[in-house]
Amino acid sequence: MGSKSNMRSSPRKCALTTALSMIWGATFLTVFGLSCGEGRKTPFDNTPVDEVEYEYSVPVATDDGWDTAHCDSVGIDHTLIENLVNEISNETMPDLNSILIVRDGKLVFEEYFNGWPPDSLHMLMSCTKSVTSALVGIAINEGYLSGIDTGIYSFFPEYDEFRTPRKDSMLLRHTITMTGGLKWDQSSYEYDDPANSLYQLWACGCNWISYILALDDLYTPGTEWEYSDAMALTTGEVLCRAVGMPVTKWAEQKLFMPLEIDRVEWRHTNGSYTNTGYGLYMRSRDMAKFGQMYLDGGQWKGQQVVSQAWVNESTAEAVPLSAAAGYGYYWWRVRYRLDDDSYVNTVFAMGNQGQMIYLVPSSNAVVVFTMTRPSNKGYDEARWAMVNHIFPALQ
Fold it and tell me: Most CB contacts within 10 A, which of 31, 57, 338, 383?
C-alpha cells in the first residue's frame, strides 16, 4: 500500500462521509425511557416507566469459559449501569438485542432486550471481517501464508483472463485494508438499490469470486480506500486456498475451539465460498470472547490463539480516515471525545444494523452491542450509550 501521504482521500472514493456517519451519527439521542431484560425486575410491554426500575445483577455463571463478577468489584459503579438501562426504552431503541461489558477479563454486565433470547445466534454482519482478519493472522503465523505482501491473482490461475498489470499489483495487504482499487461502490446507495455494487453481486446469480476478480481496475492498489465486501470475500477465498480447507473448518480448529466457542453458523455465497464479509452468526457472549482475546494480545485463558504481533499489526491504523478515525485490517480505530474534553481511544469491529465489539484498552474493557436496526441509526445508539454512560462508568 502506498504511504499515507500518497493516499488520495476524496469524500466519495474514501467513503469517508458514509463511514463516519455510521460511527459518529448526526446527533446524540437524548431522551430515553426504560427497556425490559429477561429475568430481571424491569418493565415489560406496556408497563409505565415510572412503576419499575431496573436492578443490576451479576451475569449468570455457566461452563462457557467466562468468569463473572459484580461491576463494583472491577471498579464500575453498578448504579451508573442501572442508569444506562433505565434510559433505554423499547420506543427509542426497539431493535436493541444485547449489551455486554467485560472488565479485567470478567463478564460483569449482560442484558438482553426486546425479547432477544440470550443463547441465540446473532448475525455479526461486518464484524465477520474482523474474525476473518484473525484467521489470516493465524495462517501467516503457521506458515500457510508468507505474509500480506503476496499477490492476490497468484491464487486464482483459473482466472488469468481477468488479469491486468494493475490487478497483478493487488496484494493481500490491499484486500485486507479495502484498498484494492477495483470498481466497487456499496457506500453511496442503500443496499436494496440496484446501483449498489453489493446488490449487483447478490443479483448476478453467478460465482461471486469470478465476478469480483473480473471487476474493472479503477485505481492503483493502495491509493484509494473504498469500503468493499468484495475485498473481504476475496481475502476469505485466498485464505481457503492457502490453508487447503474451507474457512469454516479452519475457523473451527484454529479459533473457535481454543476460544471455547461450540456453536456458530457461517453462511456461504454463490459458488459455495464462505461468506467472510458478513455471513457469521455467533452468540453475544462469544463475540465478547473474541474481543477479550484481542484485548489480551491474542490469548484466551493463557493459550496464544492469535500472535501478539498480528494483534498489534492488524489493529493499528493502516488507512487514515480523519483526525480521529482510521482503519486497520478489518478493524476500526476511533478516538471519542467526552463531555469533559477528555478522549478515549477505541478499537472495534463494526457490523451493519448496530453490531459492535469495542476494545477499550485504557480501561481493560470489552463492550458488545447487538441490534437488528434496519438503518445506520444502530451506530448512533451504540455511540450514545458508550459516550454518555459506559465510558464514564469505566473511568
Answer: 383
Helix/strand/coil for 103 = strand
Q: What's the pLDDT tens digit per position in 123-144? A: 999 999 999 999 999 999 999 9
List the end-to-end C-alpha distance of the chain, in Å, as a whole number: 37
Q: How many domains does the chain have?
A: 2
What grid cell was written down for 271? 459458488
Do 249 and 286 reside in the same domain of the chain? no
Same domain, 286 and 367: yes
Separation CA 135–CA 306 (nearest Å) = 8
Residues 183 and 216: their CA atoms lie apart, in Å, by 5
- State pTM to two decimals: 0.88
**Rounded CA gap, 113 and 90, in Å?**
8
Q: Strand locations in 236-354, DSSP E? A: 265-266, 280-282, 299-300, 303-304, 319-320, 325-327, 332-337, 343-351
- E strands present in the chain: 67-68, 96-103, 106-112, 122-123, 265-266, 280-282, 299-300, 303-304, 319-320, 325-327, 332-337, 343-351, 355-360, 365-371
The C-alpha angle 177, 355, 196, rounded to 5 degrees, equals 60
Residue 15 is assigned to a structural domain of this protein: no
Supply the range of the domain harboring residue 33.
Answer: 22-119+277-394
| Average pLDDT value for the chain | 87
What are the φ and ψ backbone dihedral angles of 277, each rounded to 5 degrees? -95, -40
Tens digit of each residue's pLDDT (9 = 90 or more) over 213-270? 999 999 999 999 999 999 999 999 999 999 999 999 999 999 999 999 999 999 999 8
Question: In terms of domains, do 313 and 374 share one?
Answer: yes
Q: Cα–Cα–Cα angle for 166, 224, 170, nearest 5°?
A: 30
Residues 201 and 300 in one domain: no
User: Is residue 182 a part of any domain in this protein?
Assistant: yes
The closest alpha carbon to 162, from 183, 186, 187, belongs to 183
Residue 267 forms part of a structural domain? no
Q: Say which CATH number the domain at 171 has.
A: 3.40.710.10
Are residues 247 and 227 located together in one domain of the fold?
yes
Integer Cα distance of 228 and 51 in angstroms: 47
Lookup: cell for 157: 490461475
The answer to whether residue 270 is domain-embedded is: no
Strand order in the sheet with 67-68: 67-68, 106-112, 96-103, 365-371, 355-360, 343-351, 332-337, 325-327, 319-320
- Please indicate, yes or no, whether residues 88 and 134 belong to a single structural domain of this protein: no
